[in-house]
Design brief:
The protein contains nine helices and 25 strands. A hairpin with a 3-residue loop joins strand 5 (92-97) and strand 6. It has helices spanning 11-22, 51-54, 60-72, 121-124, 137-147, 162-173, 192-199, 259-263, 301-321, and strands at 2-7, 28-31, 77-79, 83-87, 92-97, 101-112, 116-118, 134-136, 154-158, 177-183, 206-208, 210-217, 221-228, 241-244, 247-250, 254-256, 288-290, 328-334, 337-341, 344-346, 353-360, 364-373, 376-386, 392-397, 409-416. The protein is globular and about 65 Å long. 44% of the residues are buried. By secondary structure, the protein is an alpha/beta fold. The protein has three domains: 1-118 and 254-323, 3-Layer(bba) Sandwich (FAD/NAD(P)-binding domain), CATH 3.50.50.60; 120-252, FAD/NAD(P)-binding domain (3-Layer(bba) Sandwich); 327-419, Sandwich (Immunoglobulin-like), CATH 2.60.40. Strands 1, 2, 3, 4, 5, 6 and 17 form a seven-stranded mixed beta sheet that branches.
């Protein structure tokens, strides 16, 4: 019997496990399906990681190595090359690896930190044949940065997520010609800094409100057709552009890896595709916590580590003191706020400040994030330069939570300030 089992040895899992150790939890096990710790960071050789966490810009492997070193200096047990097959509501974890075979582990608490995966061509149903040369951006990144293979010479990128933007620069630096980055939405889903550094600095056009409507080629991609879309995302006849290319990269979104979450009987929020959680990142199943990209897709790994540290500390408190009362506020959204994490806030959380992560559905130059209960405003946060691709954090003091308002709901909304 372990005190804590952490599923996933990427940035979230490492930060959560170390935070729990720092809070006095001693029997901790990390289970990682890959052969080494670090997760997706191992293939992210560009810098820019860690400015918030470590005060300097690191590459992905360097950032991962910092947390690996922290874990190595503890008594935390690590099992790599271990695939977790199932988790049940009683915190039993079923796994398999080449050394131990099929094993069942039990714990007082479990932290889910499995990360996320890319959406594929099948998920977006692009018409055309199925030739070689169509890659997800992350797969192309692994081929180039880990395996040393060039994926193409003339490339179109569908989607403007951060991995796609970074791969546009990476491919260009390796001698490929990136013809365009095509985005179906009217705004990019990537960070503004990445748009500037990865597209604008290299003269790569960003075609907003456009999508790929046909893939051509027999054995290998020979070209793609791109069309403009209307406000209902339907292609507009007569706007076709043909790009002569040998490669199409897909950067069309990330999905939390929540198969194990569902097996544990935990309901998912359709907006985040992660678990519903309380303010301490505990799911609706007692003693099972979630953090990082398995909970909701983050834009910066620093936020992943920040949230995971908090989840690890909360798991340590649960192990030491048991469950807190679950009488709570449900958090709803309106006015342009697409989701919040957490979705529930305990009325007696024991916390002075509750960090609420959220995203908005449009670009806003100036606006206020407003928290209200029973239509009465309890907090307001002024923000500037909001965008769908960038997560927003607000700190809600628990003393502002209504005591006897007659409402069990908190609403978070966006009020745009006219220029």
């Amino acid at each position: 019997m372990y005190d804590l089992i952490v599923i996933g040895g990427g940035p979230a899992g490492l930060a959560a496990a170390h935070a729990a150790w720092e809070k006095g939890v001693r029997k901790i096990l990390i289970l990682e399906r890959d052969r080494e710790l670090g997760g997706i960071l191992n293939q992210c050789i560009h810098n820019g990681f860690g400015v918030k966490t470590f005060g300097e810009a690191l590459s992905g492997p360097e950032y991962a190595a910092r947390f690996e070193e922290l874990v190595e200096n503890t008594g935390i047990e690590v099992k790599t090359d271990t695939m977790v097959l199932d988790v049940d509501p009683d915190r039993n974890v079923y796994a398999v690896n080449p050394t131990d075979g099929y094993v069942t582990y039990s714990a007082k608490a479990v932290i889910l930190a499995m990360g996320c995966r890319e959406r594929t061509r099948g998920a977006i149903s692009i018409p055309g044949s199925r030739p070689a040369g169509v890659f997800s951006a992350g797969t192309a990144q692994r081929y180039m940065n880990i395996d040393g293979f060039m994926v193409g010479k003339r490339v179109v990128i569908l989607g403007s997520g951060d991995i796609g933007l970074i791969m546009a620069r990476r491919l260009t630096l390796e001698g490929a010609k990136v013809l365009a980055c095509v985005e179906i939405m009217p705004v990019s889903s990537g960070l503004r800094a990445n748009i500037a550094r990865c597209l604008e600095d290299f003269g790569i056009p960003l075609l907003l409100s456009h999508t790929v409507t046909e893939i051509r080629g027999d054995r290998r991609v020979t070209g793609v057709t791109v069309q403009k879309v209307d406000d209902k995302m339907a292609p507009i006849p007569g706007t076709e552009q043909y790009f002569d290319c040998d490669t199409l990269l897909l950067s069309v979104g990330l999905l939390p890896e929540n198969e194990l979450t569902k097996k544990a009987g935990i309901d998912l929020d359709p907006r985040t595709r992660g678990a519903y959680v309380f303010e301490n990142r505990e799911t609706e199943t007692e003693g099972i916590f979630a953090c990082g990209n398995v909970l909701h897709v983050h834009d910066l790994v620093d936020y992943v580590s920040e949230e995971a540290k908090f989840a690890g500390e909360a798991a340590a408190e649960y192990i030491a003191n048991g469950e807190r009362p679950r009488d709570s506020f449900s958090v709803t959204t309106s006015g342009g706020v697409t989701y919040t994490v957490p979705q529930k806030i305990r009325k007696d959380s024991g916390m002075k400040l509750i960090n609420v992560y959220l995203r908005v559905n449009r670009k806003v130059k100036k606006g206020d994030i407003v928290v209200a209960s029973a239509e009465k405003e309890i907090a307001r946060y002024h923000k500037e330069n909001l965008a769908p691709g960038e997560m927003i954090t607000v700190g809600l003091p628990s003393v502002l939570l209504p005591v006897n308002s007659g409402s069990d709901t908190l609403n978070v909304s966006l009020e745009e300030i006219a220029q």
